[in-house]
Amino acid sequence: MKKLLVLTVMMMMLLTTAAFGLSVVGSKHDLRITGGGTPTAGISEVCVVCHTPHQASTSAGQTPLWNKGLSGQATYSVYSSPTLNAVPTELGGATLGTAQVSNLCLSCHDGTVSVLSMANLPNSGGTNTATTVAGHILASGQIDPASTANIGTSLTNDHPINFTYDATLASADGGLVTPASAAYVDAGKKVPLFTGTVQCASCHDVHDNVNPPFLVMANTASALCTTCHVK
């Protein structure tokens, strides 16, 4: 009986962990005053900072029901290397309606736009303010340059993104796994592609921080890296 009780408790703990792991609630992307991320006043909804159920005119056409403006950064530059066979496309100057997934991430993480810059404010147009947290958030609502969450406006020292990843690239490179499809790198659907391209969300799941920092899978023994790279 005691063993059965222990097993039951363990199963409940695993289910609870899974439930919380698959949610933005309580994570760094939960920007409510009671959330786990940047303290804000006036926000009681978890999703509103990034999404709106009713598209405002300034964000019409940008999926998935996007609620933030984009960064006005004209150019981010791209990563380059003598061993890189891919040709990343510049992300700067994107416009709503045609922006890549990575542009949506950069609308906060390049550090130029307030995390509270929304097209459709909650509470029927109410105002929202960010609480300054040294090393994390500025009074302007922008991510502090001292924070590791601030990627900055140059992508030249970051893993390349916004490039086509297909069998042709894998063959030319010789050190890459051939993608299972235009939607996923592997048959287990662990690393997604977006219209056949690698984007920020290929490695990061903004809604699930069970594998910090919001990784799509555990990176023990570089498992995430070796999903794409043959090593």
Overview of the molecule:
Helix content is 21%, strand content 3%. The N terminus is likely disordered. It is mainly alpha-helical. It has 2 domains: 134 residues, no CATH class; 67 residues, no CATH class.
β-strand number: 4
Structural class: mainly alpha
* Contiguous uncertain segments of 5+ residues: 1-20
The secondary-structure element order is HEHHEEHEHH
Strand order of the largest sheet: 1-2
Round the mean pLDDT to the nearest integer and report it.
Answer: 85
* Shape call: globular
Q: Indicate the percent of residues in helices.
A: 10-25%
Strand content: under 5%
Cα(first) to Cα(last) distance is 48 Å
Give the tally of structural domains: 2
* Main beta-sheet annotation: 2 strands, antiparallel
Number of helices: 6
Radius of gyration: 20 Å
In short:
The chain is mostly helical. 21% of the residues lie in helices and 3% in strands.
From the structure above, extract its key features:
single chain; 231 residues; mainly alpha; 2 domains; two-stranded antiparallel sheet; 4 strands; 3% strand; globular; disordered N terminus
Chain-wise SSE layout:
Elements: H1 2-21, E1 40-41, H2 101-109, H3 122-125, E2 129-130, E3 163-164, H4 167-173, E4 197-198, H5 200-203, H6 225-228
